[in-house]
């Protein structure tokens, strides 16, 4: 295994060096040599907030998020950020989305899940979740003995899911999109979604809490049926479509 990895690295380096002059020449008219070389060695990442979702391994998913300054909530910039979160949440058809998932380590989350999304879900214990913005959210567990284990996935661990145990009933406190403090009891799928999203704000991802042996690739049947052919879609749209279809067909 070590030899294979080593030789692959060498091949990749040779490939890069072969095409380096061509790539640099293509941009010759626009940038200085130093800038072109730097761009090639260290490609510039886009700036957040992103239209896509950061994937596990990205350091932004592993840091504790800063709390939101309450005086900023009613500014147009912050309201635009909330609108942007909703846009990505809808594009990816999610139950919840936390700001670090689009590159911003801030204590900001949106949740919401419709009846239709429940019908399409692979999880057993799903129910609609009221649309809410949660700023600087905290929760208290109402009964430490009452937990439910169910299938859970995350747009930041695209293509995989696992069984995760979560508390059934929690008391949540957060500021809403207008900066007003709200407190409510959440249970079942809403409680699961909030616990999952609040974990993101602490740099915790569901794989840290899953039952390790239950981890599965949502496309494993597809890979088997098509003898290794297939790919994981990281963009919005038909994410998980094949997995749902194969489950429906009982494959
Ligand atoms: Zn997640």
From TrEMBL:
Claim: Hydrolase is one of the keywords in the record: yes
Any GO BP: translation
InterPro entries (UniProt xref): Peptide_deformylase, Peptide_deformylase_sf
GO MF term list: metal ion binding; peptide deformylase activity
EC code(s) of this entry: 3.5.1.88
Catalytic activity: N-terminal N-formyl-L-methionyl-[peptide] + H2O = N-terminal L-methionyl-[peptide] + formate
Keyword tags: Hydrolase, Metal-binding, Protein biosynthesis
GO CC field: mitochondrion
Top-rank EC class of the record's enzyme: hydrolase
Family, as annotated: Belongs to the polypeptide deformylase family.
Job of this protein: Removes the formyl group from the N-terminal Met of newly synthesized proteins.
Record-linked HAMAP family: Pep_deformylase
Protein's name in the database: Peptide deformylase
Organism of origin: Frankliniella fusca
Lineage: Eukaryota, Metazoa, Ecdysozoa, Arthropoda, Hexapoda
